[in-house]
């Protein structure tokens, strides 16, 4: 089995390193400064306190007949369309789109071919320190790598994908409706990122009690708005945000923002990708506005990203 990682940022680099460690032939497609760095230094990552180099094949172009069992698309949402247009001529059968998005997957299939997309989302986070990847998978109980099939005929590919993740030690789950899952995920992560952007000192956002109170209220409003639209919260544990007393929820948020988990999985991405989060913020609240009068307050009270 051969895999290609399209995109060599934090997520692409981490999954490439994990696949390569498992002995899976892994290629990485990169461009620009990142491509030059990988040519010069290799894909360096830190594990157990030691710097290692992943055994990968580095690509600067993708031939039409260079076929992989899976192409993992690990780019930002605003880059996905151009990437899929480039991949449409390649003959690899399956593209796993590990992208944070509310785009219609049918539109993406029109770009690269019907039946080729398995929508997914990574369970990982981190960053680079002096060119060395400092990243990790999120705990299974928090968020495993999540994916879904769009068509019944993709079930066999899904089974192969599960085996691939299992071989690389990557916790995963298959859900029935990836768009529903993505909506719920954005209803969670957009307010979490907003808090960093509103904070007087983003690295210490958890110290601002009023900010944590506002974030708790936003999380509750978002989850309740999705339920009013008939969307089943996925995963079901998100129901907690609908019923947990707000003071208790705000207290839990303060602890999370102060934790190593918050620093690794929340702070780094929020501060590195503000443009992407602004776009996702707009998409989420544009969707929630459609639920009617009950969610009009959301747009008024969650407009911090529009400036």
UniProtKB/TrEMBL annotation:
Ranges where the Ketopantoate reductase N-terminal domain occurs: 3-120
Name of the protein in its database record: Ketopantoate reductase N-terminal domain-containing protein
């Amino acid at each position: 089995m051969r895999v290609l990682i399209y995109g060599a940022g934090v997520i692409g680099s981490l999954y490439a390193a994990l696949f390569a460690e498992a002995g899976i032939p892994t290629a990485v497609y990169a461009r620009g400064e990142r491509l030059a760095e990988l040519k010069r230094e290799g894909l360096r990552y830190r594990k157990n306190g030691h710097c290692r180099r992943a055994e990968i094949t580095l690509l600067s172009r993708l031939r039409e007949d260079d076929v992989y069992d899976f192409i993992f698309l690990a780019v930002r949402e605003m880059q996905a369309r151009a990437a899929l247009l480039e991949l449409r001529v390649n003959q690899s059968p399956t593209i796993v789109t590990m992208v944070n998005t509310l785009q219609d997957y049918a539109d993406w299939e029109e770009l690269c071919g019907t039946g080729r997309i398995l929508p997914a989302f990574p369970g990982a986070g981190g960053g680079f320190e002096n060119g060395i990847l400092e990243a990790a998978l999120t705990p299974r109980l928090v968020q495993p790598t999540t994916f879904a099939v769009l068509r019944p005929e993709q079930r066999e590919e899904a089974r192969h994908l599960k085996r691939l993740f299992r071989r690389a030690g990557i916790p995963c789950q298959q859900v029935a409706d990836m768009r529903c899952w993505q909506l719920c995920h954005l209803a969670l992560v957009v307010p979490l990122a907003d808090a960093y952007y509103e904070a007087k000192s983003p690295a210490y956002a958890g110290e601002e009690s009023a900010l944590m109170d506002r974030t708790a209220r936003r999380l509750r409003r978002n989850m309740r708005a999705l339920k009013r639209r008939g969307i089943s919260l996925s995963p079901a544990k998100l129901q907690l945000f609908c019923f947990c007393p707000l003071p208790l929820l705000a207290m839990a948020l303060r602890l999370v923002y102060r934790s190593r988990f918050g620093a690794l999985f929340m702070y780094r991405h929020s501060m590195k990708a503000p443009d992407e989060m602004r776009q996702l913020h707009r998409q989420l609240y544009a969707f929630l506005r459609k639920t009617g009068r009950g969610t009009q307050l959301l747009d008024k009270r969650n407009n911090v990203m529009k400036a």
